[in-house]
Design brief:
This protein is mainly α. Helix content is about 70%, strand content about 5%.
Length: about 80
């Protein structure tokens, strides 16, 4: 996964783990091109980052996990009263 190092992208893309980040704007164009070339030339890195990214997104956003987190929050709220 490729993304800018700004905003919510950083929640999902961890540089060199789940993808590659580049600066926003014109300054990031050269870095983005380098990252594209790297991923095109390195299928093992591309596959590894893809698998790690999938795991991270599933952990963060899979419905079952979201429900479990919601139940935890509700439980904490009920204990404080």
């Amino acid at each position: 996964m490729l993304g800018t190092d700004a905003g919510g992208t950083q929640e999902i893309v961890e540089h060199n783990v789940t993808g590659l980040l580049h600066p926003i704007g014109r300054t990031g164009n050269h870095v983005l091109a380098q990252h594209l070339r790297f991923l095109l030339e390195n299928s093992s890195a591309r596959q590894k980052m893809g698998m790690e990214g999938r795991k991270k997104v599933q952990k963060m956003f899979l419905k079952l996990n979201m429900y479990e987190k919601f139940v935890e929050v509700l439980g904490m709220c009920m204990k404080t009263k």
